[in-house]
Write the structure tokens for this entry.
Amino acid sequence: MSEWKIYRKHADKPHNDIVAKGRLPEPPIWRDFQALKTRKLRGSNYKPSDREVEMVNTALLLRRPLLITGNPGSGKSSLAYAVAWQLNLGSVLWWPINSRSTLQDGLYTYDALGRLRDLNIEKIESERRARSGTIDAEQRQLSASEQIGRYVRLGPLGTALYGGSRPRVLLIDEIDKSDIDLPNDLLHVLEEGAFNIPELQRLTPEDAGQASEDADRTITVGVYPHDENVRSKMIPVTDGRVECNRFPFVVLTSNGERELPPAFRRRCLSLDIEDPEGDRLRDIVAAHVEEARTSGASTEVDRSVELLAEVEEVLKEFERKRENDSVLLATDQLLNAVYLITRDRAPTGEERKQILRTVLRELGRK
């Protein structure tokens, strides 16, 4: 029985080795979600190419979305996190796309049913209080109308456009999986840098607590959940219109599953990310191994210096499969393989070869 195994083929009874003997090691640094959250590691060790640096700067200066294509695992999404980390732009606003995604999903949501439910509950409670003389009918009506902002929440695109003192980073992931209309629906919003919220525009000045028709109707609404950049979690929206203060850095990723409309592509800057190879691939592996060794996240990778030859062997096998066999492999598969062989309790012999074949399984053919 190999020491690296935690779950065993034969066991007479349950055991507590994971806790009592610490048999379950800390996760790879790129799978340590608490470390990624608390230490803001995601994107900190990304190794961009010269072409990627040029296109990111061009997009920042021109205030244009950056449409990134490339094979799965080539680093399309990671580039957005790397820009946010290096330029100190806060957390990335992530909008994953599927065939059911609509423009409004990205802009805002309005919980009409929730508001109706709460208004009915409030009405019953207010009538009870009115009968007891603790609140009058006019105060009840104003309170109910002013609460609409509690049921409006900006989505990732809406929050990015609202911005703040600095531009935000918005990652629209896998735009090629969207309904055919979504890319064109995005055009107007990305060109104008503004959008309307009809539910707020329909409010009268009295609904918004204003006495005059000429007064601005300002309602506070919620922002994208878990957005650390807006401390209050509520922001003011005037006259039902959100206008861009600082245009966000928008990254749209595509796996090339379908062609996007020419009108949409014309308004974006295009970047095709190639799979890392050679020195750049080795830099990526070295950065992740070194991060794991110095972060304290795992004490089992200290042998990595002694295993440089084995790591290089895996690297060459990875490159051979991609180049000579035309096999589609992702960089994170290589990182997983390196993690397994640089631990103190690592598979050996035939088991090691079998595990590496499993981890480095082909995703397709080029």
Remarks:
- The two ends are 39 Å apart (CA to CA).
- DSSP finds 15 helices and 13 strands in the chain.
- Confidence is low (pLDDT under 50) at residues 140-145, 296-304.
- The longest strand covers residues 249-254.
